[in-house]
Amino acid sequence: MRHAVLAALCLAATAFLSACQPSADAASKRALASIDEVDQANLSNIMLTMGDPAEAVAFFSKASAEKPEDLGLKRNLAKSLIRAGKPAEAARILQTITATPDATSEDRVDLADALIRTNDWTAAKAELDRVPPTYETYDRYRLEAMVADSRKDWKKADSFYEIASGLTTKPAGVLNNWGYSKLTRQDYAGAERLFTEALTFDSGLFTAKNNLILARGAQRKYDLPVITMTQTERAELLYTLALTAIKRGDVTVGKGLLQDAIETHPQYFEAAERSLQALQG
């Protein structure tokens, strides 16, 4: 009798395990699929931010070809093409995305960005005009400002630059662009103020430093401002200031600044030496 009961229990246990096995397999497959999705997302992020641009283009081209219906892969391919310096190709990809019902306002802004990089300002404006006014992002207003600049609509440009600078915690780049816009309008004092403000957010932004010197030189301010700079940067800024002075007809001042640049530079400053010799010759 005892043997019969044990046999029955064993059969029941075997049947129970057999019944559970398919469920366990399904759970394992779901878990593995979830891990694979996370791994793919991590790999995509790495390729987009830290990977070699050409490798990223190859990676997302292959992935997008395998899953042509996946708009996320197309978006990543477009971003990779921008990083690789191929905005025209990125624009073509983004145009296929914006033609779908699932296109977003962000897709149109990205397309406008790519079109600006190809110097197609008219098409870029058309895309931005299709973005609803309720979509308010830093990138949208940064591009709106650039388009307004290209059309010399200074009032709109100033308004958009101001909005964009308030929508990011890192406004140095857009403040520098705004300052350059003021520089082209010959509003040198306004440009100087904006370049100085940009450097309060990013003291290492050399473009803003150089632009600041141009704005000051245009006002015949031939001394370097109190900003953070390396010895090499100081020499290069003195060189920029010297050339600005010479272009404004202040040749004697320019010669002195060139000499200062040569003496300041920690290495041989060939460009400054050539400029000084040309003036002396």
UniProtKB/TrEMBL annotation:
Annotated protein name in UniProt: Flp pilus assembly protein TadD, contains TPR repeats
Pfam families xref list: TPR_19
Family matches, as Gene3D superfamilies: Tetratricopeptide repeat domain (1.25.40.10)
Record keywords, A-Z: Signal
Signal sequence, renumbered to the chain: 1-26
Keyword Signal: yes
